[in-house]
Amino acid sequence: MKSSYSKFSDQELIIKCRKDDYKAQEALYKRFYAYAMGISLRYCINRDDALEAVNDSFIKLFKTIKTFEDHRLIKPWFRQIVVNSSIDNRRKNLKHSAALDIEYADEKPTDFNAIAKINAEDILKLLDCLPEIHKVVFNLYEIDGYSHEEIADILDIPSSSSRVYLSRAKDKLRKLVNSRFLDHERAV
């Protein structure tokens, strides 16, 4: 049975949440849970870490909702909370994996026609193969649109390191695409 709160707009739920209406908080949680998990899973190693980051995000959301400006949209604001919570959750592990690795060799040129055949699920699987720091920087820059300076602030690294990690992430992705998709097509 659906709650009567499910018919309320985001703004109406926000107003009720400001009054500590727990049913409105539950409705807002249910409305944005999948959205938050989708974001968090890109930054966390496993589902448990992602769930912890999502729950932390909702706690932060409900603690700060009274300061939320009415003219803003909640989704982008909440997205930033989720990204920051996910990064915070991963920060200590990132520091352990932040060592720069050297492993570059000449490689075959990429066949861009074959790349067009790769779907989003394939890309997400490839991202999971990247070292954590590369994956996080790639997500922040390419998917969430943060600048290198913003990434540097979030991860507490120099902006030049952000650029290096992004470049290496792209190089590794190119190699993975070549080895998993293009070499296979050439063999067929």
UniProtKB/TrEMBL annotation:
UniProt KW keywords: Sigma factor, Transcription, Transcription regulation
Q: Which InterPro entries match?
A: RNA_pol_sigma-70-like, RNA_pol_sigma-70_dom, RNA_pol_sigma70_r2, RNA_pol_sigma70_r4_t2, RNA_pol_sigma_r2, RNA_pol_sigma_r3/r4-like, WH-like_DNA-bd_sf
The UniProt entry, under CDD domains, shows: Sigma70_r4
- Answer yes or no on keyword Metal-binding: no
**Which residues belong to any copy of the RNA polymerase sigma-70 region domain?**
28-93
A Pfam family that this protein carries is Sigma70_r4_2
**Is Transcription regulation given among the entry's keywords?**
yes
Any one Gene Ontology MF annotation carried by this entry is:
DNA binding
Q: Which GO terms describe its biological process?
A: DNA-templated transcription initiation
- Where does the RNA polymerase sigma factor 70 region 4 type domain lie? 121-173
Q: PANTHER family from the entry?
A: RNA POLYMERASE ECF-TYPE SIGMA FACTO, RNA POLYMERASE SIGMA-70 FACTOR ECF SUBFAMILY
Assigned protein family: Belongs to the sigma-70 factor family. ECF subfamily.
NCBIfam families from the entry? sigma70-ECF
Q: What is this protein called?
A: RNA polymerase, sigma-24 subunit, ECF subfamily
Query: What organism is recorded for this protein?
Result: Pseudopedobacter saltans (strain ATCC 51119 / DSM 12145 / JCM 21818 / CCUG 39354 / LMG 10337 / NBRC 100064 / NCIMB 13643)
